[in-house]
Amino acid sequence: MEQKNIDFKRLKKSMFISVIIAMLLFAGLSIYSDINQLRRVFVTFNYRYIPIILLLAPLNYLLRFVKWSYYLKLIGVNITIKDNFLIFISGLSMTITPGKIGEFFKSYLLKEKANLPISSSAPLVMVERITDGFSMLILASLGILSYKHGLEVFLFVLVCMVAFIVIIQFSSIVYFFLDLLHRIPILKRFKSDFENFYRHAHMLLKPKPLSYAISIGVVSWFFEGLVIYFTIKAMGLTFTLLASIFVVSFSSIVGAISMMPGGLLAAEGSILGLLIMMDLPRDVAVATTLITRFSTLWLGVLIGFIGLIILQRSFDNKN
């Protein structure tokens, strides 16, 4: 099998653009908060909570890896645990792409490492995102009922996702549209790929695997929801667990549908707005937003790039 190098130039360019946006965002939030007040918040911060805060997102990743491995087993992929884990964490570096669409890079890696056609693995990546979305909707629903905020966004995303899954289950409808696509000359040669994609998506979205994946997702994203809870606790203030889970899950949904790289601007704006709406001081809200996004986004990106570097070396060693 021909081995190809990972295109680090393109990845670095994507990373660079996202970092620039993040730096501008950090500067804007600092000005909004008053940088002196923000500095006082970090000076009084109880740094004994840092290990807990930084551990929560990796716990999420670990459980999502269990879900990912379950899906691979379901579609009959034969791959070593080491390669499987490296491919999964490498995908974390792609969360800074619009709508996390770059996570389909994992399909390329599976093709290189397990000789799995992209049309077979791409549905797995798609279903990953769908089940994560459902898990966050479940977590967010508790806060929406309590705080009466975000119901329109919640219903819009829920209806779209349910409609998509229902349509996938009706093979006759899907194959009707696939037949129409196959009549287009430029798409005709992709007939087998489209059908293979659909077969795997249909299998992964059946009630049993769907329920299992969503259940794992609820637990895994619950850990990320604790980030705000412990961050505010480290600042000497109290914040309910329900509010923390709601803010993280709802802002993640907003960030995802915004299609911004890593949900930048949209997720930060949602977190900050919700925290202020819940009567947190502006400087505390800004500091919490910055810590939360580092823990739930940039830490994962860093872990992902480490995974990519290790994979690149394994490719080089085989050449």
Describe this structure in words.
The chain has about 325 residues and is mainly α. It has one domain. Helices cover about 80% and strands about 0% of the residues. Helix 6 packs antiparallel against helix 7 and helix 11 packs across helix 14. The relative contact order is 0.17. It holds the Pfam family LPG_synthase_TM.
Number of helices: 14
> How does the overall form come out from the CA principal axes?
globular
Q: Helicity, in percent?
A: over 70%
Tally of strands: 0
Q: Secondary-structure element sequence?
A: HHHHHHHHHHHHHH
The span between the termini is 10 Å
Low-confidence stretches: none
Radius of gyration: 21 Å
Structural class: mainly alpha
Strand count, sense and closure of the main sheet?
none
Strand content: under 5%
The overall number of domains is 1
Mean pLDDT: 87
Set out the fold topology.
Blueprint: H1 8-33, H2 35-43, H3 50-74, H4 81-90, H5 105-114, H6 118-147, H7 151-169, H8 171-182, H9 185-188, H10 191-204, H11 207-234, H12 241-258, H13 266-277, H14 282-318
Helix pairs in contact: 1-2, 1-14, 2-14, 3-4, 3-11, 3-14, 4-5, 4-14, 5-6, 6-7, 6-10, 6-11, 6-12, 8-10, 11-12, 11-14, 12-13, 13-14
